[in-house]
Amino acid sequence: MPSMYPHKCAARKKCKAYRARFVFACVLILSSALHPLKAEILSDNPYDRKVAYFGGLSRQLFGGDRNDITIATEMFFKEVINRIGHHDAVKFKVYDNKPEIIEEMRNNRLDTVFANPLDYLDLDPQINPDFRYTLTYGPMPEQRIYLITYAEDKVKGLAKLRGKRLVIPSGYILGMTYLEVLLAREGLPTPRAFFSAIENTNSSNAAILDVVFRKADLAVTSDVAVRLATELNPQINDLIDILDVSDQYIPFIIGVNKQVPKNFTDKVDEILSDIKHQPRLRRILAMFSATDVVKVSDDQLKTLRALKTEHEQLLGN
User: What is the Cα–Cα distance from 31 to 18, expressed in whole angstroms?
Assistant: First the structure.
C-alpha cells in the first residue's frame, strides 16, 4: 500500500473544520448587519433593538463541532464589526425543531437562520428569497454527492454492498438522504438494515481514507472533498472508484427573515459584496479555504426540492 502522507491528512482534517467554522462566521456577519439603525425607524418598530438574533437547528451540521465553531468565529466577527462600526450584541440560539424557528421569525425574534439544505427547505417560506446565501469552495457553490469504493473491489452496484461497512461524515444529512433514495429506488432496505455497520467520521477526508485503508467498503462524500484529497495525495485517485455521482446541490444555506426591513438587508448585501475587496477579510476567508459568499436563487434549490420530494414518496417521511 502506498504511503498516504499522514501529516497531509491531518492538515486536511483541520481545513475541513475551519470551513465549517467559517459557515458560522458568515451567519454572524449577516446577523450583525441586521441590527437596526435607530435614526431611520420609529422606537416602536420591532427591529429597534440592541441585539441581533441568529439561530440554527440542533441537528449536527456537516463537519463541525459547535463549541469549536463558536470560538473560531470570533476573529472574523470582530473584524466585520470593526469595519461597519457595529458594537451591539449578537446572540445565537440552537433550536430543537423547525416550527419553533418559524414561530420566532414570524414574531421578529430571529433575523438570520442557518440549516442543512434539506431542513432549510421547510424554513424557506419565511425567508426573503433575495437574501439566501452559501459559501463556495471552488468555481461554483453547488456540490455533487459521491459514493466511493476501494478500486480493487470492483464494485458495480449498490446491491453488491449488502452486509458491508458504510462510512459517512457526521452531519452529512444531504448525503445520507441521497443514499436512502438510491437504495429505495432499487428496492433495497434502508442503510441501517442494508449495511453491517455505519460509522460517522469527523471529516470528509477521514471518510475517504477509511475506504483507502480498508476500514470501510463505501464512503458517502462530495466531489469537493475528493478533489481536495487527491490534490493533497494523487495516489488516492488510483485507489478509489466513484460508484455514483448525484445532481448538483447547495450544501448549506444561510437565510434572512423576510420581515427584516429593506434598509437592513441592503446593508447585508453591502458587507458581503465587499468582502473580496477588503484585504484583511479576504485573508481570513482564505484561511477557511472558501473562495466567496454568494446568493442562492430559486433555480439552485430545484434539485434539493426534487430530492426531498422523492425521499418523502419512497420512504414515507
Answer: 20
Q: Is residue 124 scored above 80 in pLDDT?
A: yes
| Count of residues in the chain | 317
Nearest to 100 by CA among 126, 129, 78: 126
Rounded Cα distance, 161 and 62, in Å: 24
For residue 49, give the 3-state DSSP assignment.
coil
Which residue(s) pair with 253 in the sheet?
115
Q: Are 314 and 184 in contact (CB under 8 A)?
A: yes
Residue 296: all three cell numbers together: 442562492
Is the CB of residue 214 less than 8 Å from the CB of residue 152?
no
Three-state secondary structure call for residue 106: helix
Assigned C-alpha cell, 53: 438574533
User: Do the beta carbons of residue 212 and residue 240 sit within 8 Å?
Assistant: yes
| Distant-in-sequence, close-in-space partners of 32: CB < 8 Å, separation ≥ 6 | 52, 77, 80, 81, 84, 86, 90
108 phi/psi in degrees, rounded to 5: 60, 30
Put simply, whether the predicted model's pTM sits higher than 0.85 gets the answer no
Residues near 48 by beta carbon (within 8 Å), at least 6 away in sequence:
36, 38, 41, 42
The H or E element spanning position 212 is: helix 204-212
Residue 190 has what DSSP assignment? Answer: P
pLDDT in tens, 271-292: 777 777 877 767 766 766 677 7
* CA nearest neighbour of 174 among 113, 224, 231: 224
Contact 27, 112 (CB under 8 A): yes
Backbone angles phi, psi at 59, to 5 degrees: -60, 140
What pLDDT, in 10s, does the model give residues 231-254? 999 999 999 999 999 999 998 888
